[in-house]
Design brief:
Radius of gyration: 34 Å
Oligomer: single chain
InterPro entries: Endonuclease_MobA/VirD2 (IPR005094)
Strand content: 15-25%
Distance between the termini: 66 Å
CATH architecture of the largest domain: 2-Layer Sandwich
Pfam families: Relaxase (PF03432)
Protein name: Relaxase/mobilization nuclease domain-containing protein
Length: 483
Protein backbone atom coordinates (compact mmCIF):
# COMPACT_ATOMS: atom_id res chain seq x y z
CA UNK A 1 0.00 0.00 0.00
CA UNK A 2 1.52 3.28 -1.16
CA UNK A 3 0.04 6.72 -0.44
CA UNK A 4 1.11 9.77 -2.45
CA UNK A 5 0.17 13.14 -0.90
CA UNK A 6 -0.05 16.23 -3.15
CA UNK A 7 -0.65 19.65 -1.62
CA UNK A 8 -1.60 22.83 -3.47
CA UNK A 9 -3.98 25.75 -3.65
CA UNK A 10 -6.20 24.81 -6.58
CA UNK A 11 -9.22 22.89 -5.36
CA UNK A 12 -10.92 23.40 -8.70
CA UNK A 13 -8.03 21.68 -10.47
CA UNK A 14 -7.92 18.65 -8.17
CA UNK A 15 -11.68 18.23 -8.35
CA UNK A 16 -11.72 18.68 -12.14
CA UNK A 17 -9.02 16.05 -12.58
CA UNK A 18 -11.14 13.40 -10.88
CA UNK A 19 -14.45 14.49 -12.40
CA UNK A 20 -12.99 14.33 -15.92
CA UNK A 21 -11.82 10.80 -15.17
CA UNK A 22 -15.42 9.98 -14.15
CA UNK A 23 -16.80 11.48 -17.38
CA UNK A 24 -14.34 9.33 -19.37
CA UNK A 25 -15.45 6.19 -17.45
CA UNK A 26 -11.92 5.92 -16.01
CA UNK A 27 -13.08 6.56 -12.43
CA UNK A 28 -16.15 6.49 -10.18
CA UNK A 29 -17.10 8.45 -7.06
CA UNK A 30 -17.32 5.94 -4.19
CA UNK A 31 -18.08 8.16 -1.21
CA UNK A 32 -18.61 11.79 -0.15
CA UNK A 33 -18.31 12.87 3.47
CA UNK A 34 -19.32 16.32 4.71
CA UNK A 35 -21.75 17.01 1.85
CA UNK A 36 -25.51 17.45 2.41
CA UNK A 37 -26.63 15.73 -0.81
CA UNK A 38 -26.36 12.07 -1.84
CA UNK A 39 -23.76 10.90 -4.36
CA UNK A 40 -26.34 10.84 -7.16
CA UNK A 41 -27.47 14.40 -6.43
CA UNK A 42 -24.03 15.97 -6.08
CA UNK A 43 -22.99 18.12 -9.04
CA UNK A 44 -19.52 19.50 -9.70
CA UNK A 45 -20.64 22.91 -8.39
CA UNK A 46 -22.07 21.34 -5.22
CA UNK A 47 -18.73 19.70 -4.46
CA UNK A 48 -16.72 22.81 -5.25
CA UNK A 49 -19.10 24.97 -3.16
CA UNK A 50 -18.45 22.94 0.01
CA UNK A 51 -14.67 23.03 -0.46
CA UNK A 52 -14.67 26.75 -1.36
CA UNK A 53 -16.65 27.65 1.76
CA UNK A 54 -14.13 25.80 3.88
CA UNK A 55 -11.00 27.24 2.23
CA UNK A 56 -12.36 30.79 2.46
CA UNK A 57 -12.15 30.48 6.26
CA UNK A 58 -8.37 30.95 5.95
CA UNK A 59 -7.24 33.20 3.12
CA UNK A 60 -3.67 33.33 4.44
CA UNK A 61 -2.98 29.61 4.03
CA UNK A 62 -0.27 28.87 1.47
CA UNK A 63 -1.96 25.55 0.72
CA UNK A 64 -5.55 24.46 1.21
CA UNK A 65 -6.04 21.58 -1.24
CA UNK A 66 -4.98 18.03 -0.40
CA UNK A 67 -5.06 15.35 -3.10
CA UNK A 68 -4.00 11.83 -2.05
CA UNK A 69 -3.68 8.69 -4.17
CA UNK A 70 -3.63 5.32 -2.40
CA UNK A 71 -2.24 2.46 -4.47
CA UNK A 72 -2.51 -1.26 -3.75
CA UNK A 73 -0.51 -4.19 -5.07
CA UNK A 74 -1.89 -6.26 -7.96
CA UNK A 75 -2.12 -9.23 -5.60
CA UNK A 76 -4.42 -7.36 -3.18
CA UNK A 77 -7.97 -8.64 -3.82
CA UNK A 78 -10.16 -5.74 -2.70
CA UNK A 79 -13.83 -4.93 -3.33
CA UNK A 80 -15.47 -1.51 -3.00
CA UNK A 81 -16.36 -2.15 0.64
CA UNK A 82 -12.71 -2.92 1.42
CA UNK A 83 -11.51 0.19 -0.40
CA UNK A 84 -13.92 2.41 1.55
CA UNK A 85 -13.07 0.82 4.89
CA UNK A 86 -9.29 1.10 4.35
CA UNK A 87 -9.52 4.66 3.03
CA UNK A 88 -11.69 5.92 5.89
CA UNK A 89 -9.36 4.37 8.47
CA UNK A 90 -6.38 5.91 6.67
CA UNK A 91 -7.97 9.38 6.79
CA UNK A 92 -8.71 8.98 10.47
CA UNK A 93 -5.15 7.95 11.28
CA UNK A 94 -3.65 10.96 9.46
CA UNK A 95 -6.16 13.33 11.12
CA UNK A 96 -8.51 14.12 8.19
CA UNK A 97 -11.63 12.19 9.19
CA UNK A 98 -13.42 15.37 10.32
CA UNK A 99 -12.73 17.13 7.02
CA UNK A 100 -15.05 17.11 3.98
CA UNK A 101 -13.65 14.59 1.52
CA UNK A 102 -14.42 12.71 -1.68
CA UNK A 103 -13.22 9.19 -2.51
CA UNK A 104 -12.81 8.19 -6.16
CA UNK A 105 -11.83 4.76 -7.45
CA UNK A 106 -9.71 5.00 -10.63
CA UNK A 107 -9.48 2.38 -13.37
CA UNK A 108 -6.53 3.76 -15.38
CA UNK A 109 -3.94 1.28 -14.07
CA UNK A 110 -3.57 -2.47 -13.67
CA UNK A 111 -3.74 -2.25 -9.87
CA UNK A 112 -6.48 -1.03 -7.50
CA UNK A 113 -6.10 2.59 -6.45
CA UNK A 114 -8.23 5.43 -5.11
CA UNK A 115 -7.91 9.23 -5.07
CA UNK A 116 -8.96 11.39 -2.13
CA UNK A 117 -9.80 15.07 -2.48
CA UNK A 118 -10.02 17.07 0.74
CA UNK A 119 -8.76 20.23 2.44
CA UNK A 120 -6.45 20.90 5.37
CA UNK A 121 -8.55 23.90 6.57
CA UNK A 122 -10.56 22.97 9.65
CA UNK A 123 -14.08 24.25 10.36
CA UNK A 124 -12.64 26.87 12.77
CA UNK A 125 -10.28 28.21 10.08
CA UNK A 126 -7.10 26.67 11.51
CA UNK A 127 -4.84 24.46 9.42
CA UNK A 128 -3.92 20.82 9.76
CA UNK A 129 -0.09 20.85 9.70
CA UNK A 130 1.16 19.26 6.47
CA UNK A 131 4.87 19.32 7.28
CA UNK A 132 6.19 15.74 7.52
CA UNK A 133 2.64 14.36 7.37
CA UNK A 134 3.75 11.66 4.97
CA UNK A 135 6.71 10.54 7.04
CA UNK A 136 5.18 10.81 10.51
CA UNK A 137 1.58 9.68 9.96
CA UNK A 138 0.91 8.43 6.45
CA UNK A 139 3.64 5.77 6.29
CA UNK A 140 2.73 4.51 9.76
CA UNK A 141 -0.95 4.29 8.76
CA UNK A 142 -0.08 2.34 5.57
CA UNK A 143 2.03 -0.23 7.41
CA UNK A 144 -0.68 -0.72 10.06
CA UNK A 145 -3.47 -1.15 7.49
CA UNK A 146 -1.35 -3.60 5.49
CA UNK A 147 -1.13 -5.78 8.58
CA UNK A 148 -4.81 -5.38 9.50
CA UNK A 149 -6.12 -6.24 6.03
CA UNK A 150 -3.41 -8.71 4.98
CA UNK A 151 -2.14 -6.47 2.18
CA UNK A 152 1.19 -6.79 0.37
CA UNK A 153 3.81 -4.80 2.27
CA UNK A 154 5.14 -2.01 0.06
CA UNK A 155 8.47 -1.88 1.91
CA UNK A 156 9.22 -5.43 0.69
CA UNK A 157 8.85 -4.38 -2.94
CA UNK A 158 11.77 -3.32 -5.12
CA UNK A 159 11.78 0.14 -6.70
CA UNK A 160 10.89 -1.27 -10.11
CA UNK A 161 7.85 -3.01 -8.67
CA UNK A 162 6.75 0.19 -6.91
CA UNK A 163 6.98 2.01 -10.24
CA UNK A 164 4.27 -0.33 -11.55
CA UNK A 165 1.86 1.07 -8.94
CA UNK A 166 1.69 4.33 -10.88
CA UNK A 167 -1.01 4.89 -13.51
CA UNK A 168 0.04 4.03 -17.05
CA UNK A 169 1.17 7.25 -18.72
CA UNK A 170 -0.04 7.57 -22.30
CA UNK A 171 0.97 9.89 -25.13
CA UNK A 172 -1.35 12.84 -25.59
CA UNK A 173 -3.30 12.50 -28.86
CA UNK A 174 -5.07 15.69 -29.85
CA UNK A 175 -8.83 15.19 -29.93
CA UNK A 176 -8.70 11.82 -28.14
CA UNK A 177 -9.34 13.27 -24.68
CA UNK A 178 -9.85 16.65 -23.04
CA UNK A 179 -6.67 18.64 -23.71
CA UNK A 180 -6.14 20.25 -20.33
CA UNK A 181 -6.67 17.00 -18.45
CA UNK A 182 -4.38 15.04 -20.76
CA UNK A 183 -1.59 17.64 -20.57
CA UNK A 184 -1.97 17.95 -16.79
CA UNK A 185 -1.62 14.19 -16.32
CA UNK A 186 1.60 14.06 -18.34
CA UNK A 187 3.16 17.19 -16.84
CA UNK A 188 2.45 16.15 -13.25
CA UNK A 189 3.79 12.63 -13.80
CA UNK A 190 6.97 13.83 -15.53
CA UNK A 191 7.71 16.39 -12.80
CA UNK A 192 7.05 13.79 -10.12
CA UNK A 193 9.07 10.96 -11.62
CA UNK A 194 11.93 12.46 -13.65
CA UNK A 195 14.96 14.51 -12.65
CA UNK A 196 15.93 17.33 -15.02
CA UNK A 197 17.65 20.66 -14.44
CA UNK A 198 16.40 22.90 -17.25
CA UNK A 199 13.36 23.54 -19.37
CA UNK A 200 15.15 22.00 -22.36
CA UNK A 201 15.81 18.79 -20.42
CA UNK A 202 12.21 18.74 -19.19
CA UNK A 203 10.99 19.12 -22.78
CA UNK A 204 13.18 16.21 -23.85
CA UNK A 205 10.95 13.98 -21.72
CA UNK A 206 7.66 15.81 -22.39
CA UNK A 207 8.07 15.54 -26.17
CA UNK A 208 8.10 11.77 -25.80
CA UNK A 209 4.47 12.18 -24.74
CA UNK A 210 3.58 14.76 -27.43
CA UNK A 211 3.71 17.71 -25.01
CA UNK A 212 5.98 20.77 -24.92
CA UNK A 213 6.52 23.53 -22.35
CA UNK A 214 6.83 26.87 -24.16
CA UNK A 215 8.16 30.22 -22.91
CA UNK A 216 7.39 32.25 -26.00
CA UNK A 217 9.86 33.89 -28.34
CA UNK A 218 12.64 36.08 -26.94
CA UNK A 219 11.60 39.71 -26.86
CA UNK A 220 7.90 38.94 -26.43
CA UNK A 221 5.93 40.08 -23.39
CA UNK A 222 5.33 36.44 -22.41
CA UNK A 223 9.06 35.66 -22.40
CA UNK A 224 10.00 38.83 -20.50
CA UNK A 225 7.41 38.08 -17.79
CA UNK A 226 8.56 34.43 -17.46
CA UNK A 227 5.29 33.05 -18.73
CA UNK A 228 4.92 29.35 -19.49
CA UNK A 229 2.32 27.41 -21.48
CA UNK A 230 1.98 23.72 -22.32
CA UNK A 231 1.09 22.57 -25.83
CA UNK A 232 0.06 19.33 -27.53
CA UNK A 233 2.32 18.36 -30.43
CA UNK A 234 1.24 16.79 -33.72
CA UNK A 235 3.18 14.06 -35.56
CA UNK A 236 5.58 16.65 -37.01
CA UNK A 237 6.28 18.21 -33.60
CA UNK A 238 4.21 21.34 -34.24
CA UNK A 239 1.87 22.92 -31.69
CA UNK A 240 -1.77 21.97 -32.15
CA UNK A 241 -4.89 23.07 -30.29
CA UNK A 242 -5.30 25.59 -27.48
CA UNK A 243 -2.28 26.04 -25.15
CA UNK A 244 -2.73 25.46 -21.42
CA UNK A 245 -1.36 28.05 -19.01
CA UNK A 246 0.98 26.60 -16.40
CA UNK A 247 -0.86 28.51 -13.68
CA UNK A 248 -4.15 26.77 -14.58
CA UNK A 249 -2.75 23.30 -13.79
CA UNK A 250 -3.46 22.73 -10.14
CA UNK A 251 0.12 21.68 -9.25
CA UNK A 252 1.23 25.09 -10.65
CA UNK A 253 4.17 24.01 -12.88
CA UNK A 254 5.02 27.64 -13.69
CA UNK A 255 8.53 28.66 -14.71
CA UNK A 256 9.19 30.14 -11.27
CA UNK A 257 8.15 26.94 -9.54
CA UNK A 258 10.01 24.78 -12.04
CA UNK A 259 13.24 26.68 -11.45
CA UNK A 260 13.22 25.61 -7.80
CA UNK A 261 12.64 22.03 -8.94
CA UNK A 262 15.52 22.29 -11.43
CA UNK A 263 17.81 23.41 -8.63
CA UNK A 264 16.75 20.56 -6.32
CA UNK A 265 17.25 17.99 -9.08
CA UNK A 266 20.92 18.90 -9.64
CA UNK A 267 22.12 16.99 -6.59
CA UNK A 268 19.67 14.12 -7.18
CA UNK A 269 20.99 13.46 -10.70
CA UNK A 270 24.63 13.20 -9.64
CA UNK A 271 23.96 9.86 -7.92
CA UNK A 272 23.05 8.25 -11.25
CA UNK A 273 25.69 9.81 -13.50
CA UNK A 274 28.22 6.95 -13.35
CA UNK A 275 25.60 4.32 -14.11
CA UNK A 276 24.63 6.06 -17.37
CA UNK A 277 28.29 6.50 -18.33
CA UNK A 278 28.85 2.75 -17.91
CA UNK A 279 25.79 1.95 -20.02
CA UNK A 280 26.97 4.20 -22.87
CA UNK A 281 30.53 2.83 -22.69
CA UNK A 282 29.27 -0.75 -22.81
CA UNK A 283 27.24 -0.07 -25.96
CA UNK A 284 30.21 1.63 -27.65
CA UNK A 285 32.39 -1.41 -26.98
CA UNK A 286 30.35 -3.22 -29.63
CA UNK A 287 30.61 -2.37 -33.33
CA UNK A 288 28.27 0.57 -34.03
CA UNK A 289 27.37 1.20 -37.66
CA UNK A 290 26.07 4.76 -37.28
CA UNK A 291 24.34 7.10 -34.83
CA UNK A 292 20.92 5.60 -35.56
CA UNK A 293 22.16 2.16 -34.59
CA UNK A 294 23.69 3.75 -31.49
CA UNK A 295 20.25 5.14 -30.57
CA UNK A 296 18.65 1.73 -31.11
CA UNK A 297 21.20 -0.10 -28.98
CA UNK A 298 20.85 2.37 -26.10
CA UNK A 299 17.06 2.24 -26.34
CA UNK A 300 17.30 -1.50 -25.67
CA UNK A 301 19.10 -0.53 -22.46
CA UNK A 302 16.27 1.83 -21.45
CA UNK A 303 18.00 5.04 -22.58
CA UNK A 304 16.67 7.44 -25.22
CA UNK A 305 19.23 9.49 -27.16
CA UNK A 306 18.27 12.82 -28.73
CA UNK A 307 20.70 14.48 -31.14
CA UNK A 308 20.15 18.24 -31.39
CA UNK A 309 20.98 19.46 -34.89
CA UNK A 310 20.33 22.13 -37.47
CA UNK A 311 20.59 21.96 -41.24
CA UNK A 312 24.38 21.83 -41.23
CA UNK A 313 25.54 20.05 -38.07
CA UNK A 314 24.82 18.15 -34.86
CA UNK A 315 25.47 20.55 -32.00
CA UNK A 316 24.19 18.74 -28.91
CA UNK A 317 23.07 15.45 -27.41
CA UNK A 318 20.66 14.57 -24.58
CA UNK A 319 20.30 11.22 -22.79
CA UNK A 320 17.03 10.24 -21.10
CA UNK A 321 17.70 7.33 -18.75
CA UNK A 322 14.32 5.75 -18.05
CA UNK A 323 15.93 3.32 -15.59
CA UNK A 324 16.95 6.07 -13.14
CA UNK A 325 14.48 8.68 -14.49
CA UNK A 326 17.32 11.16 -15.11
CA UNK A 327 17.97 13.50 -18.03
CA UNK A 328 21.57 14.44 -18.87
CA UNK A 329 23.12 16.63 -21.52
CA UNK A 330 26.20 14.95 -22.94
CA UNK A 331 28.51 17.64 -21.58
CA UNK A 332 27.13 17.03 -18.06
CA UNK A 333 28.42 13.45 -18.24
CA UNK A 334 31.92 14.53 -19.23
CA UNK A 335 34.11 15.31 -22.24
CA UNK A 336 33.76 11.78 -23.59
CA UNK A 337 29.99 12.12 -23.93
CA UNK A 338 29.48 15.38 -25.83
CA UNK A 339 27.78 15.17 -29.23
CA UNK A 340 31.11 15.68 -31.06
CA UNK A 341 32.93 13.02 -29.04
CA UNK A 342 30.07 10.49 -29.21
CA UNK A 343 30.02 10.77 -33.02
CA UNK A 344 33.81 10.29 -33.04
CA UNK A 345 33.50 7.23 -30.81
CA UNK A 346 30.82 5.77 -33.09
CA UNK A 347 33.16 6.25 -36.08
CA UNK A 348 36.05 4.70 -34.14
CA UNK A 349 33.86 1.75 -33.22
CA UNK A 350 33.16 1.11 -36.91
CA UNK A 351 36.85 1.46 -37.79
CA UNK A 352 37.99 -1.01 -35.14
CA UNK A 353 35.31 -3.49 -36.15
CA UNK A 354 36.47 -3.28 -39.77
CA UNK A 355 40.06 -3.75 -38.62
CA UNK A 356 38.99 -6.69 -36.48
CA UNK A 357 37.27 -8.33 -39.45
CA UNK A 358 40.34 -7.85 -41.63
CA UNK A 359 42.59 -9.37 -38.96
CA UNK A 360 40.25 -12.34 -38.60
CA UNK A 361 40.17 -12.90 -42.36
CA UNK A 362 43.97 -12.81 -42.57
CA UNK A 363 44.31 -15.22 -39.65
CA UNK A 364 42.03 -17.78 -41.28
CA UNK A 365 43.69 -17.35 -44.67
CA UNK A 366 47.17 -17.87 -43.21
CA UNK A 367 46.03 -20.98 -41.35
CA UNK A 368 44.72 -22.55 -44.56
CA UNK A 369 47.96 -21.74 -46.41
CA UNK A 370 50.09 -23.42 -43.74
CA UNK A 371 47.99 -26.59 -43.50
CA UNK A 372 49.80 -29.91 -43.97
CA UNK A 373 47.89 -31.73 -46.72
CA UNK A 374 50.01 -34.86 -46.28
CA UNK A 375 48.31 -35.97 -43.06
CA UNK A 376 44.92 -37.68 -43.06
CA UNK A 377 41.68 -35.68 -43.06
CA UNK A 378 40.75 -37.04 -39.61
CA UNK A 379 43.98 -35.75 -38.04
CA UNK A 380 43.62 -32.41 -39.77
CA UNK A 381 40.03 -32.14 -38.54
CA UNK A 382 41.19 -32.81 -34.97
CA UNK A 383 43.89 -30.15 -35.30
CA UNK A 384 41.50 -27.55 -36.73
CA UNK A 385 39.06 -27.88 -33.83
CA UNK A 386 41.87 -28.03 -31.26
CA UNK A 387 43.31 -24.73 -32.57
CA UNK A 388 40.05 -22.84 -32.10
CA UNK A 389 38.54 -23.16 -35.56
CA UNK A 390 35.79 -25.18 -37.17
CA UNK A 391 34.83 -26.41 -40.63
CA UNK A 392 31.66 -25.40 -42.47
CA UNK A 393 30.37 -26.53 -45.85
CA UNK A 394 28.38 -24.56 -48.39
CA UNK A 395 28.04 -24.76 -52.17
CA UNK A 396 29.64 -22.89 -55.03
CA UNK A 397 27.86 -21.53 -58.11
CA UNK A 398 28.09 -24.97 -59.79
CA UNK A 399 26.40 -26.72 -56.88
CA UNK A 400 29.59 -28.42 -55.66
CA UNK A 401 30.67 -28.52 -52.02
CA UNK A 402 32.72 -25.54 -50.84
CA UNK A 403 34.62 -25.83 -47.56
CA UNK A 404 35.10 -22.85 -45.22
CA UNK A 405 37.21 -22.28 -42.13
CA UNK A 406 35.68 -20.18 -39.32
CA UNK A 407 36.12 -19.50 -35.59
CA UNK A 408 34.60 -21.38 -32.65
CA UNK A 409 33.33 -18.06 -31.31
CA UNK A 410 29.92 -17.50 -32.88
CA UNK A 411 30.24 -13.73 -32.27
CA UNK A 412 32.99 -13.61 -34.90
CA UNK A 413 31.21 -14.14 -38.18
CA UNK A 414 34.37 -14.33 -40.31
CA UNK A 415 34.92 -17.36 -42.50
CA UNK A 416 37.32 -18.09 -45.35
CA UNK A 417 37.25 -20.51 -48.27
CA UNK A 418 40.24 -21.32 -50.41
CA UNK A 419 41.52 -22.85 -53.62
CA UNK A 420 40.29 -26.14 -55.07
CA UNK A 421 43.01 -28.12 -53.27
CA UNK A 422 41.43 -27.24 -49.89
CA UNK A 423 38.03 -28.47 -51.07
CA UNK A 424 39.35 -31.66 -52.72
CA UNK A 425 41.35 -32.55 -49.62
CA UNK A 426 38.34 -32.71 -47.33
CA UNK A 427 36.03 -34.15 -49.96
CA UNK A 428 38.45 -37.00 -50.64
CA UNK A 429 38.65 -37.53 -46.87
CA UNK A 430 34.86 -38.08 -46.75
CA UNK A 431 34.31 -34.99 -44.56
CA UNK A 432 30.65 -34.37 -45.32
CA UNK A 433 28.31 -31.51 -44.49
CA UNK A 434 26.39 -33.85 -42.16
CA UNK A 435 29.53 -34.58 -40.15
CA UNK A 436 30.58 -30.91 -39.96
CA UNK A 437 27.16 -29.80 -38.77
CA UNK A 438 27.19 -32.53 -36.13
CA UNK A 439 30.64 -31.55 -34.87
CA UNK A 440 29.72 -27.85 -34.72
CA UNK A 441 26.55 -28.62 -32.76
CA UNK A 442 28.57 -30.79 -30.37
CA UNK A 443 31.10 -27.98 -29.96
CA UNK A 444 28.37 -25.46 -29.20
CA UNK A 445 26.84 -27.65 -26.50
CA UNK A 446 29.96 -29.19 -24.92
CA UNK A 447 32.87 -26.86 -25.62
CA UNK A 448 36.28 -27.69 -27.05
CA UNK A 449 37.68 -29.85 -24.22
CA UNK A 450 36.60 -33.28 -25.54
CA UNK A 451 36.39 -32.51 -29.25
CA UNK A 452 39.55 -34.44 -30.32
CA UNK A 453 38.50 -37.56 -28.49
CA UNK A 454 35.00 -37.21 -29.90
CA UNK A 455 36.31 -36.97 -33.50
CA UNK A 456 38.43 -40.09 -32.95
CA UNK A 457 35.37 -41.83 -31.60
CA UNK A 458 33.33 -40.93 -34.68
CA UNK A 459 36.05 -42.17 -37.05
CA UNK A 460 36.54 -45.47 -35.24
CA UNK A 461 35.38 -48.49 -37.24
CA UNK A 462 34.11 -50.01 -33.99
CA UNK A 463 31.74 -47.11 -33.34
CA UNK A 464 28.03 -47.49 -32.98
CA UNK A 465 25.53 -46.26 -35.57
CA UNK A 466 26.19 -42.62 -36.60
CA UNK A 467 24.22 -40.67 -39.22
CA UNK A 468 22.62 -43.87 -40.57
CA UNK A 469 25.93 -45.70 -40.90
CA UNK A 470 26.27 -49.26 -39.58
CA UNK A 471 29.68 -50.38 -38.28
CA UNK A 472 31.62 -53.05 -40.09
CA UNK A 473 31.52 -56.71 -39.06
CA UNK A 474 34.53 -57.38 -36.83
CA UNK A 475 35.32 -60.61 -38.78
CA UNK A 476 35.59 -58.70 -42.03
CA UNK A 477 38.32 -56.22 -42.97
CA UNK A 478 37.62 -52.69 -41.85
CA UNK A 479 36.06 -50.65 -44.58
CA UNK A 480 36.41 -46.94 -45.20
CA UNK A 481 33.68 -45.03 -43.37
CA UNK A 482 31.65 -42.80 -45.64
CA UNK A 483 30.25 -39.88 -43.71
Amino acid sequence: MVAKIMVGKNMNGALSYNEIKVSEAKAALLHADGFLLSLEQLSFQDKLFVFSNRTELNDRAKSNCVHISINFDKKDALNKSDLLSITEKYLKQIGFNEQPYLIYEHYDAAHKHVHLVTTNIRSDGTQIPMYNLGREKSMKACRGLETEYGLVNATSKKQGELESLKPILEKVIYGKSETKSAISNVVRAIIRDYKFTSLAEMNAVLKGFNVEAYRGEKGTKMFEKSGLTYHVLDKKGNHIGVPIKASSIYTKPTLKNMESIFLANKSKKILHKNQLQRTIDKVLQSPIQDRFFFQLMLKKQGVDVLFRENESMVYGITFIDHNTKCVFNGSDLGKGYTAKRILERIAESGFWEQQKQEDSYNELKNYIQKMDYNIGAQKMLEQIYKDGYQLEIGQNSLGNNKYFLSFHNSENGSRVGSVNRFDRYFEDGNITEKLCNHLNEYLLKNGVQQIQQYIQHLFSAQSDNYFGHTTADKKKPKRKINW
